[in-house]
Amino acid sequence: MKQFLAAIALCGLAACAAPPVTVGPSYRDMAQPIGVTSRFDEARFGGLWYVRAGFAPDLGRMALKLMDTPAGLQMRLGAFVCDPAGVCGDFSEDLPVQRLGKGRYQIAMPDGEKRRFWVLWVDEGFRTAVVGNPEGTFGWILDRATKGGSDRIKAAREILDFNGYDLSNLKVVE
Predict the structure, then answer these.
(1) pLDDT digits (tens, 9 = 90+) for 12-41
(2) Separation of alpha carbons 33 and 148, rounded Å
(3) Is there a contact between 97 and 78 (Cβ–Cβ < 8 Å)?
(4) Are 165 and 132 in contact (CB under 8 A)?
(5) Where are the domains of the chain?
(6) Which residues pair with 127 in a beta bridge?
(7) How much is the pLDDT for 23?
């Protein structure tokens, strides 16, 4: 009987450790395997990245940067936004990040959602990267520059396709 109760308690604890359920549309075929790049190096991934393409219909100019701070790992996420009155400007927010493994993170989004953030690919020079998550609720092509690198951007699109993303929904940031 004690073993049975211990097994039930362990199952209950395991349920607490389950990954968060994310909401929103999925842009990828969930039957397709997905994984992080073996080339990932957090130090080389550091610095500023611009979102060059992604799957959100309202995707606009965005940038991000992973930073080690006294409060722990943070992602500074910046975007160009406009309010209902038409006043526009750059806005950024530092979001808490939890390391889940090599190239795997969990970001605490402003609305409280916990979003997994996986680095699926990065080119040899760490100039272009692809990030996404197993749920397929987002996927971005990142680059160190806002223009150029068409060969790397093409390779990044192929990585998204390989990981099951539906490229017909991919929006390029102008």
Answers:
(1) 333 334 444 445 689 999 999 999 999 999
(2) 30
(3) no
(4) yes
(5) 25-172
(6) none
(7) 56
What integer pLDDT is reported at residue 57 of this predicted model?
80
**CATH no. for 25-172:** 2.40.128.20
Which token pair is 55?
């799957």
Per-residue 3-state assignment (H helix, E strand, C coil) for the chain: CHHHHHHHHHHHHHHHCCCCCCCCCCCECCCCCCCCCCCCCHHHHCEEEEEEEECCCCCCCEEEEEEEECCEEEEEEEEEEECCCCCEEEEEEEEEEEEEECCEEEEECCCCCEEEEEEEEECCCCCEEEEECCCCCCEEEEECCCCCCHHHHHHHHHHHHHCCECHHHCEECC
Structure tokens at 26: 């999925």
CA dist., res. 112 & res. 38, Å (int): 30
Across-strand partners of 117? 105
| Both structure tokens of 18 | 């389950």
> Which pairs count as long-range contacts for 75-78, CB under 8 Å and 24+ apart, including other chains?
75/105, 75/107, 75/117
